Amino acid sequence: MRVVGQYYDDKTAKLVRKYGPGPRIHYHVGYYPSSETPPHAHNATPESIRSSIRLHQEGLLQYAAKIWGAEHRLSGKVLDVGCGLGGGSLFWAQEYGADVTAVTNAPEHAPIVEGFARECGLDGKVKALVCDANQLTVDDGPYDAAVAIESSGYFNRSQWFQRLARVIRPGGSVCIEEVFTTRPHGADVWAEYFYCKPATVLDYVKAAEAAGFELVDEFDATAETAPFWEESAAWTKAVLDCDNGLSAVERRQMRISLLANQAQGAEWRAGGLQLGFLRFEKKWSSSL
Question: Is 230 inside a domain boundary?
Fold first, then answer.
């Protein structure tokens, strides 16, 4: 996990450039209800494409809030595990009044998250915690829910669910939005670029059940999120075309990112990767 933390520390400036300026910065796919890429994506400035990406990333959280019943499940004490730069944490606190503990293993991100929280007037409602997701404690719990937006692929699932069983109250929820694999090549495409360990939905169910959780909701949004990769690739192309200040190293990195985006989109549409929303509940009879 230290390697992953360093990876995201190193990416901070790039994340802000592509998904910023903040305060709600998201590092996950977007939700496109029509399953179509906005027509301007291939013929626009980096700024306009970035604005569209941000709009659809917020749309993904709004969709998650609807299907997870956020008004009563994500309005209390919430763990945002793998919070990135805190966009989701701020969303749950601002939109639903949650008291959020934003968990990150990237030390550089903690003060950024808390700075954005202050900027939003959420000082005291959102606090950052630097730790390994597998080492969560119940110091200020128990929590009503845990949320993981495209972060759980970095965790040891069995250890993570066992740890969540100690910090989530009985009847509480674990809400996961994640990329799941349906064939080996899909796993390779996702893992090689993001340094994570994708798995199947069944892998999650088994780990959760062993820790005293049961799957109660599952939604597939693969088609509605596929256009994100076209917009993401369009942004990179636009930057390469119009930013003459990029160094040779930056251009090389962006070209690698462009190829990776195109590969993700192809695998998404070919059915090798699945974007799903899962909600687990901790059983009242669980002794953990």
Answer: yes
